[in-house]
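forwarding from the other thread:

> can someone predict this with S-adenosyl-L-homocysteine?

sure thing
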Amino acid sequence: MSTSQCLSRLAAHHRSDTEKQVPPGTVTLVGAGPGDPELLTVKAVKALEAARVVLYDHLVAPEVLAYLPHHAERIYVGKESSRHTLPQGEIIDLMICLARAGKSVLRLKGGDGYIFGRGGEEAQALAQAGIPFKVIPGLTAAQGAAASVGIPLTHRDHACALVLATGHLRDNKGLDMDWDMLARPRQTVVLYMGVNNLPEICRQLQAHGRGAGTPAALIENATTARERCITGTLGELPGLALRHQIRPPALVMIGEVVTVRQQLEHAGDAVSKPAAAVHAAA
Ligand code: SAH
């Protein structure tokens, strides 16, 4: 039986509770941070420890799930890039169905739910359905990666603006991005979900005026023991990604702030570097 069929059965089971006219449960949308469980907020840990039913995504680290009580019902809803175990609409339906059956639901997402996490869509659907909900923010991947690899996202000498953008457009309909804005100088651009479209992204940024020599970095599995950070230039980035076989989840960071890493990369070793992290320059 497919996950989707299993979940429909589960929803049907809980729907029978709905018919008993119980007051709806609360949904808590929790950001699980970038991977390292020590980067969870205190509020997130408290919500995890009190959870009964949990809907969680692919990007949520197993170490984060370890905070759940053993009796909590865990429902994996997937969401690897372009491979959703459960379509977004069904995730929302399931969440609403469980809440209407009186269950308190914990919706756990990687990073921060309101940053490329579809948390906004889920919150809108809950509001529309009249389900009470609250949101607990998480550290987004860019923040975790920046601290872990030693790249400050803004810096008075290098970048007075930070742009978080997605390199993967809805339904993969081609990259219709504001290239002039993304190619501006004195800013840091962090691309989420950008690995598969990296050659096109780098080509467009250069065509719109960002120099091929602009410092850039690829950070895979940031804040985990599998973290890798590869640095080079905008022109070199697609080749580096191929050579080092960079795979999602990974971030692309573009901007002069990447040069600061030379001074900072070893500074935090004693306290913050994951045990087996790999770091390389072009
Ligand atoms: N809500 C999440 C982002 C979800 S979009 C957040 O705030 O972080 C999924 C993308 O996030 C991945 O494709 C990747 O680009 C990025 N990402 C998430 N976790 C990451 C990690 N530990 N290391 C590098 N990139 C990560």
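Residues 3-136 form a domain with the Cobalt-precorrin-4 Transmethylase; domain 1 fold (CATH 3.40.1010.10). thats all i got for now
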